[in-house]
């Protein structure tokens, strides 16, 4: 019977059509399943609101751009400076837009943290976390402590234009760059949340890393210039601070230091800058034993053309490259130096990587 | 300011026009005169665009940036609002390659190479013209021969009918609290001598609303800190001493204070940067025919341009001075002479010599107080006979610099040849072919060379090469005039001066090559349709393929350079009747990219800007001794806050009313 045959076919087709037009939405779990892959925060171009978050799928070797925009229907904003994961939340510091976004692990906004200052707002810079709290430096000269849940921000004054920070042994260390004119590291006691003292270091400190045992602080400072002659007043340096004695010593083997980040097993990665034959910026990555300060050699033989940033996350090292004009590139390595992939960051100036 | 007010105003204008008996409705412009001005444009051996006062009036344009919209191959980079910086670029070249000449005096900026054309008002302007490449005019300043193109503005020389005094006063009101009074006085001083004084004041809150798009969100915001207040004034004396020559003396002063709103940054808006300008200029221009075959012209000018940039940083522990309060003083002295010798009819040779002295002083630490002397020598020849017009020119430029601290940039020398030819085809109608070649350059600016840390004293000039092939056509039948031009060009830039990141800071370097292939098309019509209706119509289209060819391995290799639309165009329609003149202008600009790489993230939308203008001139008294001009314009009719520069939204729909009395 033709008709008997037809009706179920039509019904099946209808069902198919219905199910195609209205896909069954899986129930949303209480704790959202996070993004998986190599996540990159692109800093963007100043004043252009073009910061963004891209996700690289290592298996598929493909990059998805605009993850924050997709999750929220709104742009990330201007100058994405730092991103970190704490529990099932992400914190994203937007320097130009002067907000810290708190999102779930799928980048959906849970809270927008803004701190009023004068007739404007404070510009957040770098993030760190310890004991369930998030710490953020503000360009206006403050360290902020964010309590997840209430998202209240407690502030304490540090030095001028603070940049990188690290936390060790109940203390926060903050690099006061002074936009090139300060030369101190603020030591903030986290229990009382007040600055205990300032350690004098090389001019223009940018990044700090403390050793796992809490005995040594490493300070990466950039070139600083004479305000009148614009000659290099003090060149970029890597310094070691013995926190017990307060002694500061230069690690002279490392010139043109661009960045230091804490790695696994009490190791630290150091990015050193240089130029290639065409006077384009290059980067070399080295490994240092944080307990002793001993050089553990090159992380990779490769010289990174247009070196821009260095970050470490969950067993992976991200080296960002940028010419400031076109989309950046990210070189992804395993912590032992094994090359994993090179991919287009789908945005300008890849600033920070997270391996999720 | 709603539509009602505009409609009301229109009704009033229409009512007055109908009920007030008018004495004379004949347009002063006849076809013959149009043919005359148009034929210069058509005959030019390199592309030339021109607009005279009556055409400006028809379109309702009151500023250079509005007038230049209809010029194919000319782009204005506009940061929005009355106070926003406006610079003019020729074809795909940067604004620093454009020469600007105002009443025979070169207006320049040695500090950053950019002249803000927003300061010029058109109340007293006779004509504006843009040369896209070479020029058929060889009797002028040598300095202009080095520019890729020249924008020239000519103000009206006083012309008296009847009494020896002429007075003009105007008041203009526009949306967003914009007031603009203008006053001018022209006085005959005696046989052959006259003087003119004018002043123009603009005050605008500039607090226009705009729609901000952020992902799926659209919010209405107000442009903050976009206020401007400026005064522009001139005093001139003109003398005609018969065989003793002519003399023009001019003093100009410009004073402004404005807020700089900056780009719209998502999630935060708190601009507080301010800028003050005080610009004084004195110039003298003397022209004489000393002998039968000779013409001489000499000029001298002094310019002092002071500006102050104020900004504050919300820094808890300031180390450098707070707030930032930078003062700059640029001074320029220039002298120029040009001699034209015409041994035979149709053959001319000229030798032009300019010497320009520039200094820059600033209160910012480390300013080296540079001084530059530049010498420009141009030797040109022109042949114009029968169907031929040919121009050749060779410019030699040399400069030397001194600084108070550090090393000065080394001296530089550059030779720039140019040649152009126009040939009229032996056919009934005016049909001409033209071809031109031009080598141009721009010297590194003081900022390029000496700006704190970034400047690089070893920079070479940025070089530009232009070749153009074109066809022009004009036709007059009865009281109708049609004309059209079509040009195709091949241009290139090498040794582009750009900021390049180095290890810890950026520095200026000569890197980058750009290839530009393009075409400009212009069409225009003017004619008497019926006894009471004159119609004007024009259309222009530009195609620009301008790509970066610096590095084949770069992600932007052969990508369109930033802020250069591939397609752009304009259309204008004006109807002149005894009762009212109606003008409509459309500007259309295609998609552009804000950065070197042409990817969707950097794309900005195409835009259309529509302008509607209505005006009428009432003649009062015996022999039309008084004139009352009233006009109303609606700008950006569609009301879209399009962006010329990303995140610098343009104002939406605006209205403007002018009443101008002339005696």
Strand content of chain A: over 45%
The helix content of chain A, as a percent range, equals under 10%
Overall pLDDT of chain B, averaged?
A: 90
Number of strands of chain A: 33
Termini separation of chain A (Å)? 58 Å
Ranges of chain B with pLDDT <50 over ≥5 residues?
Answer: 1-36
* Main beta-sheet strand count, sense and barrel state of chain A: 5 strands, antiparallel
Number of helices of chain A: 2
SS content category of chain B: mainly beta
Q: What value does the average pLDDT of chain A take?
A: 91
Regarding quaternary structure, how should these chains be classified?
heterodimer
What amount of the residues of chain B lies in strands?
A: over 45%
Overall morphology of chain A: globular
Helix/strand/pairing category of chain A:
mainly beta
In short:
The complex is a heterodimer of chains A (356) and B (663). Chain A has 356 residues and is mostly beta strands. Chain A has helices spanning 2-21, 67-72, and strands at 38-42, 52-57, 62-64, 80-86, 89-94, 99-103, 109-113, 116-117, 120-121, 124-130, 133-138, 142-147, 152-157, 162-168, 171-176, 184-189, 194-200, 205-210, 216-221, 224-225, 232-234, 237-242, 247-250, 257-262, 267-275, 281-289, 295-298, 304-305, 307-313, 316-321, 329-334, 339-344, 350-355.
Architecture overview:
The complex is a heterodimer of chains A (about 350) and B (about 675). Chain A is built from two helices and 33 strands. Chain A is mainly β and about 350 residues long. By secondary structure, chain B is mostly beta strands. Chain B is about 5% helix and about 55% strand. Chain B has five helices and 37 strands. In chain B, a hairpin with an 8-residue loop joins strand 18 and strand 19. Chains A and B meet through strand 9 and strand 25 of A and loops of B.
């Amino acid at each position: 019977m033709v008709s008997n045959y037809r009706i179920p076919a039509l019904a099946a087709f209808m069902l198919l059509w219905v199910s195609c037009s209205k896909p069954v939405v899986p129930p949303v779990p209480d704790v959202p399943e996070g993004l998986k892959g190599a996540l990159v925060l692109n800093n963007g171009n100043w004043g252009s609101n073009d910061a963004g978050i891209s996700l690289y799928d290592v298996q598929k070797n493909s990059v998805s751009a605009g993850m924050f925009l997709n999750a929220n229907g709104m742009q990330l904003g201007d100058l994405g400076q730092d991103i970190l994961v704490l529990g099932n939340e992400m914190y994203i510091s937007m320097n130009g837009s002067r907000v810290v976004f708190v999102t779930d692990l799928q980048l959906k906004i849970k809270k927008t943290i803004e701190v009023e200052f004068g007739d404007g707002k404070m510009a957040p810079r770098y993030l760190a976390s310890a004991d369930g709290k998030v710490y953020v430096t503000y360009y206006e000269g403050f360290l902020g402590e964010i309590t997840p849940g209430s998202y209240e921000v407690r502030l304490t004054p540090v030095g001028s234009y603070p940049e990188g920070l690290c936390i060790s042994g109940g203390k926060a260390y903050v690099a006061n760059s002074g936009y090139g004119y300060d030369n101190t590291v603020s030591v903030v006691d986290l229990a009382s949340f007040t600055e205990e003292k300032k350690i004098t270091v090389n001019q223009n400190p940018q990044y700090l890393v403390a050793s796992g045992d809490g005995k040594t602080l490493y300070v990466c400072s950039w070139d600083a210039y004479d305000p009148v002659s614009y000659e290099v007043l003090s060149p970029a340096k890597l310094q070691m601070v013995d926190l017990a004695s307060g002694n500061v010593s230069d690690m002279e083997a490392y010139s043109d230091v661009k960045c230091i980040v804490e790695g696994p097993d009490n190791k630290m990665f150091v990015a050193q800058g240089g130029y290639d034959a065409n006077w384009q910026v290059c980067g070399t990555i080295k490994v240092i034993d944080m307990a002793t300060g001993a050089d553990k050699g090159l992380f990779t033989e490769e010289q990174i053309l247009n070196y821009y940033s260095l970050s470490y996350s969950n067993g992976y090292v991200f080296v960002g490259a940028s010419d400031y004009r076109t989309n950046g590139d990210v070189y992804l390595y395993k912590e032992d130096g094994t090359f994993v992939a090179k991919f287009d960051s789908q945005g300008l100036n890849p600033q920070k990587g997270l391996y999720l | 300011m709603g539509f009602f007010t505009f409609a009301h105003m229109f009704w009033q204008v229409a009512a007055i026009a109908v009920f007030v008996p008018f004495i004379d409705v004949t347009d002063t412009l006849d076809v013959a005169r149009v043919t005359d001005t148009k034929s210069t444009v058509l005959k030019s051996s390199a592309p030339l665009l021109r607009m005279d006062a009556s055409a400006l009036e028809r379109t309702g344009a009151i500023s250079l940036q509005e007038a230049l919209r209809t010029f194919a191959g000319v782009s204005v980079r506009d940061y929005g609002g009355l106070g926003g910086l406006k610079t003019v670029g020729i074809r795909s070249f940067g604004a620093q390659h454009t020469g600007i000449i105002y009443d025979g005096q070169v207006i320049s900026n040695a500090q950053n190479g950019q002249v803000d054309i927003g300061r010029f008002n058109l109340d007293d302007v006779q004509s504006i013209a843009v040369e896209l490449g070479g020029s058929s005019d060889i009797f002028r300043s040598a300095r202009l021969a080095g520019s890729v193109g020249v924008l020239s503005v000519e103000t009206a020389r006083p012309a008296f009918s009847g009494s020896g005094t002429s007075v003009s006063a105007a008041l203009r009101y526009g949306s967003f609290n914009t007031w603009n009074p203008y006053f001018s006085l022209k006085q005959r001083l005696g046989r052959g001598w006259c003087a003119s004084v004018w002043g123009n004041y603009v005050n605008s809150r500039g607090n226009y609303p705009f729609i901000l798009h952020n992902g799926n969100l659209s919010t209405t915001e107000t442009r903050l800190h976009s206020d401007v207040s400026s005064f522009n004034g001139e005093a001139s004396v003109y003398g005609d001493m018969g065989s003793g020559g002519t003399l023009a003396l001019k003093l100009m002063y410009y004073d402004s204070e404005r807020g700089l709103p900056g780009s719209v940054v998502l999630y935060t808006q708190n601009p507080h940067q301010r800028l003050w300008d005080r610009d004084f200029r004195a110039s003298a221009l003397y022209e004489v025919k000393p002998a039968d075959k000779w013409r001489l012209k000499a000029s001298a000018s002094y310019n002092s341009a002071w500006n102050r940039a104020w900004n504050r940083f919300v820094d808890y522990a300031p180390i450098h001075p707070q707030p930032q309060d930078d003062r700059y003083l640029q001074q320029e002295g220039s002298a120029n002479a040009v001699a034209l010798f015409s041994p035979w009819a149709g053959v001319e040779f000229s030798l032009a010599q300019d010497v320009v002295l520039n200094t820059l002083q600033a209160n910012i630490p480390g300013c080296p107080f540079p001084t530059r002397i530049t010498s420009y020598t141009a030797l040109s020849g022109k042949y114009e006979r029968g169907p031929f017009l040919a121009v050749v020119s060779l410019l030699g430029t040399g400069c030397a610099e001194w600084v108070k601290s550090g090393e000065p940039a080394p001296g530089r020398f550059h030779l720039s040849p140019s040649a152009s030819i126009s040939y009229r085809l032996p056919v009934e109608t005016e049909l001409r072919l033209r071809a031109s070649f031009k080598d141009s350059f721009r010297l590194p600016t003081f900022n390029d060379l000496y700006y704190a840390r970034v400047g690089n004293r070893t920079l070479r000039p940025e070089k530009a090469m232009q070749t153009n092939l074109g066809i022009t056509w004009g036709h007059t039948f009865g009281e109708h005039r049609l004309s059209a031009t079509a040009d195709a060009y091949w241009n290139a830039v090498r040794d582009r001066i750009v900021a390049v990141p180095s290890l810890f800071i950026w520095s200026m370097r000569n890197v980058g090559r750009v290839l530009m292939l393009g075409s400009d098309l212009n069409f225009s019509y003017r004619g008497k349709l019926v006894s009471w209706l004159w119609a004007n119509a024009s259309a222009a289209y530009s195609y620009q393929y301008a790509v970066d060819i610096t590095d084949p391995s770069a992600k932007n290799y052969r990508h369109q350079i930033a802020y250069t639309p591939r397609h752009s165009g304009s259309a204008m329609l004006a109807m002149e009747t005894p009762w009212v003149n109606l003008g409509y202008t459309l500007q259309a600009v295609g998609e552009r990219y804000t950065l070197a790489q042409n990817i969707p993230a950097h794309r900005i939308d195409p835009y259309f800007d529509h302008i509607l203008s209505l005006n009428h001139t009432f003649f009062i008294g015996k022999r039309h001794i008084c004139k009352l001009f009233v006009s109303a314009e609606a700008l950006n009719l569609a009301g879209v806050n399009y962006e010329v520069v990303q995140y610098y939204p343009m104002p939406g729909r605006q209205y403007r009313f002018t009443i101008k009395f002339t005696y």
